[in-house]
Amino acid sequence: MSELIAVSGATGAIGGRVARRLASAGVEQRLMGRDAARAPRLPGAHFAVADYADPASVRTALDGVGTFLFVSATETRDRADQQRAVVGAAVAAGVRRIVYVSFVGAAPDCTFTFGRDHWWTEQEIRSCGLEFTFLRDNFYQDMLPLLAGEDGVIRGPAGDGRIGAVARADVADVAVAVLTGAEHDGHTYDVTGPRAITLTEAAAMISDATGRTVRYHPETLDEAYASRAEYGAQEWEVAGWVTSYQAMATGELDVVTDTVPRLTGHPAKDFTELLAETRS
Question: Is 148 helix (H, G, I), strand (E, B) or coil?
C-alpha cells in the first residue's frame, strides 16, 4: 500500500503550509496545483499539474498516491459538482484515503450557502468506499482583518454572534497530524481557535494591534445585499458573502473545540497572538 501523500492547493494558504511542514518532517509528497511556476521547491516533494475542472488531470496526478489531502476548491456556482468529479478521480487512481478540508457546521441547509457545497462533498466521499477524515475548519482568523473596508469599518449582518475563528497555521498543523498519524479514519474534526469572539471584539483587537481604528457596523440583511451590489458579482457569490456573516448571527460558528491541542500537542493560537505575529 502506497504511503505517498498528495497535497492539493500546494500554492495556496493551507496546502502550502502543509507541504512545508511535511517537507520539514522528511515526508515524501506529491504537490498538486494549476501552476507549476508557483510550486514551492521542497525536499522530498515533486509537483503535478492538476486542475479540479479537469478530472483527468487529477486522476493522473493522484496515480500511486495513498493519502490525498483534498483542499476544497475556490467557490464557484458548480463547486459541488466539480468536487464530486475530484472524488471520482481519486477512486479511479487507487487512492486509499481522503483527508478533506471542509467547514464547520456543513449541512445541506446551513445558513452559509458555501458550506452546503462542503456537505455534499462530504457525502460523496462517505459513499465512495475510501477511508476518510474531515477537517471542518471554523472561519479563518487570518481573514478577519481583511473584512474591514478602507474606512476601517467591518460591515455585515453578524449581529452579536460569536465565532471560534482558527488560525490557518493551526489548521495546517492539524492536517499534518492527521496525514501522518493513525486512528483518524472515519473521524470528523471541528478545527477552531481557543475562544469564540464577536466582530466587535475582533475589531477592537485589530485596533489595539495595528493602531488603526477599526470598528464593526452590524447591517440588516437588506443593507448587506445593497452594500455589496456595487461589486457587480453574481447573485450566488454575493449570497455566499452575506450568509457568512448571517451564520455568525445564528450561532452556527460559535463552536470551540480542543481539536488543535489534542491533535498537535500545542495550544490553539488566539487571535491576539496572530495579530502580534503579523505585526512583527
Answer: strand
